[in-house]
Each structure stands twice: as C-alpha cells, then as structure tokens.
C-alpha cells in the first residue's frame, strides 16, 4: 500500500512550455499500477501463512522483519547516509512503526481471516476519511464540502457492507467490521506521523526505520522461534513469508516511489487504488468468495469517497500507506 511519500515530492510552478514526454514519464503510470497490483495480492500470501499456522501477529512480524532486513540491506549497498537519523526524532518512527504499521497490519490480517478479501481491503481504504478527521483536529485543516461528501459516502458504504440496512452481509461479524475499520485508522496514522517525518527525512529512511521499529516491537510477542520452526518444517510458509515481505511490501514501495518522481502525487494515489480491485479479484477467482449486490454497492461507495478526496490537479498531501 502507498506510503505518505508525496510529502517529500516538491511542487514546482507550472511552466508555460510543454515539456517533452520522457521515457520515465511514459512508464510512471505503469509503475504505479504495478505497485497497486503487488499490494492487492497481500491476501494471497497472508492467508497461506494463516493456513500454515501463523497468527495475525506472527504474519505481521514476518512481513515487517523481511521488509526491514531487505530495505536496510538495499540502503547499506546503495546509500548508507539514508540510514542516519537524529535520536530526538525516534518518536516519529515509534508512531509510524508501532501505532501505524503494527496496529494496522494486525487488524488487516485479522479482517482477512474474518471477512472476504474485498471487504477487508475496502475497509482499509476508509483511511483517507480518518486522516481528514485527524488532520482537522490536530492540524486545524479545514473540512470542505467535498470532504464532508466523501465522509458521507464512506459511512454509507460501511453501513451497506455491515448489513445494517437490508439483507447485507448477514454472515459478516461485528468484529470483522471493527478490525477492518481499525486497519483504516492505523493506516491513517501513518499519514499523521509520516507527514512530519517526511519533512526531515527521505521516504526510504522513513520506511526503513518504520519497519525496523515495527519488527523490534513485535519480537517479544510473536514467538519468533516458533515462526522459524514452522518455516523450516513447512516450505510453503517460508516462501509465502518471503513473498509477503518482498513482493507485496518492498517492491511495490520502490515502484511507487519511482513512479511518483515522474507524475503528480494526486494522479499516482488514485491509480494506486487498483489495489482493492485486485484484492477483490483474488478473493473471487482464487478463494471462490461471493459478493452480494449490497456488498458491491458498499464497496463502490467507499471507493467513490476516496476518489472524491483525491481527485484534484494539485494535491498538497497524499494519505496513502505501504
């Protein structure tokens, strides 16, 4: 899922001359879409890990550890300076690592167990609405008519998915809805802490320390020896753990960051919303999940609310995580 990287992208005054379309700008949209596809197949790996005997906490720990090790190694080889931080800023990475990544991943993987991939994914994407509310309270950001409209759409979508009106998802538990929305809140918290961190550090630095802190905080609770034992006995668990950390975390982050260098942040964030669509297709085609008409309408309303929030020519902030 896209990080709040757009904060680090500088906005320049538009030129009167039309710049030639470079090769990098031509492939930028493809990079963003590829990142969304990689994020969209998270459920494929996490469910296989759950079936292999790992808990939601252990799945989260596996993802964070693999990503932290790979990204740290990448930076050690490419640019060691990006691993330097001021210890006074450690609280920012405690926020992005524990309050956001750890909390939202545990909630998200639990939601995937309790609900369909499409519903878990779309509840995660209520995050922009939570960012809007938090930003208004913490940063005094104005709440516009468009933001209110998006909030109403998202709330209506959640009502339809929860089955509060009509027949809806009668087999969907209240816990599934709560942890799904919890994932959205955790996802949103990355934008709050990340927006401050990205004013001081490169996106690679923020992401590396986010996953390092998340990994260290999970070690006492995840029984890492148990994870290692299961992985050694079950090759499927080992492979899916590596794929979750590399294919659905590290690679899409690098793709999204590279694509964002050559296109507007607003367009990039909207294009990355291919993720819930891919998650829905994975659920239907691979796990044979069923969607009711009311579920589909609820998903559409939440998706529409995110488009309303993000659809602009110039975007000051980007509220998405990876």
UniProtKB/TrEMBL annotation:
- A GO cellular component entry from the record: membrane
Q: Which InterPro entries does this entry report, sorted A to Z? A: EamA_dom, EmrE-like
- What is the name attached to this protein's record? Putative permease, DMT superfamily
The organism's superkingdom is given as: Bacteria
UniProt keyword list: Membrane, Transmembrane, Transmembrane helix
**Pfam families according to UniProt:** EamA
Similarity comment: family membership: Belongs to the EamA transporter family.
Residues in EamA domain copies = 30-162, 175-310
Segments traversing the membrane: 27-45, 57-77, 89-111, 117-139, 148-166, 172-192, 204-225, 237-256, 268-287, 293-311
Q: Does the keyword Acyltransferase apply?
A: no
Q: Does the keyword Transmembrane apply?
A: yes
Native organism is Desulfitobacterium dichloroeliminans (strain LMG P-21439 / DCA1)
The protein's matches in SUPFAM superfamilies, at most eight in alphabetical order, are given as: Multidrug resistance efflux transporter EmrE
């Amino acid at each position: 899922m896209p990080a709040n990287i757009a904060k680090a992208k500088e906005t320049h005054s538009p030129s009167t001359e039309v710049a030639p379309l470079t090769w990098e700008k031509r492939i930028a949209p493809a990079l963003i879409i590829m990142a969304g596809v990689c994020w969209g197949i998270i459920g494929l790996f996490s469910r296989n890990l759950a079936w292999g005997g790992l808990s939601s906490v252990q799945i989260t720990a596996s993802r964070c550890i693999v990503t932290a090790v790979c990204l740290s190694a990448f930076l050690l080889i490419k640019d060691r300076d990006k691993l330097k931080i001021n210890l006074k800023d450690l609280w920012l990475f405690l926020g992005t690592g524990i309050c956001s990544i750890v909390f939202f991943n545990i909630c998200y993987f639990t939601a995937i167990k309790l609900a369909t991939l499409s519903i878990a994914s779309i509840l995660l994407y209520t995050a922009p609405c939570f960012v809007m509310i938090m930003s208004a309270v913490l940063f005094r950001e104005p709440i516009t008519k468009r933001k209110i409209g998006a909030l109403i759409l998202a709330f209506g979508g959640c009502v339809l998915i929860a089955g509060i009106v009509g027949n809806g998802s009668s087999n969907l538990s209240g816990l599934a809805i709560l942890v799904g929305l919890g994932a959205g809140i955790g996802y949103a918290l990355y934008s709050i802490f990340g927006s401050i961190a990205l004013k001081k550090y490169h996106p690679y630095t923020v992401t590396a320390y986010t996953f390092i802190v998340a990994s260290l905080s999970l070690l006492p609770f995840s029984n890492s020896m148990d994870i290692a034992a299961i992985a050694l006995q079950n090759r499927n668990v080992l492979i899916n753990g590596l794929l979750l950390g590399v294919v659905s975390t590290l690679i899409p982050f690098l793709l999204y960051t590279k694509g964002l260098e050559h296109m507007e942040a607003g367009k990039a964030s909207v294009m990355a919303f291919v993720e819930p669509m891919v998650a829905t297709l994975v659920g239907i085609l691979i796990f044979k999940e069923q969607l009711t008409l009311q579920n589909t309408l609820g998903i559409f309303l939440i998706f529409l609310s995110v488009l309303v929030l993000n659809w602009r020519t110039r975007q000051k902030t980007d509220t998405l995580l990876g």
